[in-house]
Design a protein that fits this description.
The protein is built from 2 helices and 6 strands. With 98 residues, it is an alpha+beta fold. The strands form 2 sheets. It has a 4-stranded antiparallel sheet with strand order 2-5-1-6, covered by helices on one side. A two-stranded antiparallel ribbon has the order 3-4. The radius of gyration is 14 Å and the shape is globular. The protein starts with 7 loop residues before the first strand and ends with a strand.
Length: 98
């Protein structure tokens, strides 16, 4: 059975190595969404990509870090999304929300 709601869908684009006050940024975003009671959140690790720096990001067996692109999908009712968007904007220094 499909569940259909009118709401908002936000995509956050970051790097796997981005951090927020200690933990990874994607973990911190998921925790914030959970605390705000957001309905759906998924973290997807990309194979390859580039962002605002125009540098290519891809996992490499020779790299010391895994600088893969990460997309966080966030979905909920408009009212709930409006409540968390300012917090997400505060957390993003170099990422992008769409």
């Amino acid at each position: 059975m499909a569940i259909r709601h009118l709401g908002k869908h936000v995509r956050v684009f970051i790097n796997a190595t981005d951090q927020w006050r200690g933990p990874s940024l994607y973990t911190a975003i998921v925790e914030q969404c959970h605390e705000h009671g957001i309905a759906r959140v998924a973290v997807l690790r990309g194979v390859e990509g580039f962002g605002t720096s125009a540098g290519m990001h891809a996992p490499s067996p020779w790299a010391l870090t895994n600088d893969a692109p990460v997309v966080i999908e966030i979905l909920d009712a408009s009212e709930k999304m409006d409540g968390i968007l300012p917090r997400l904007e505060e957390m993003l220094s170099d990422g992008m929300m769409w």
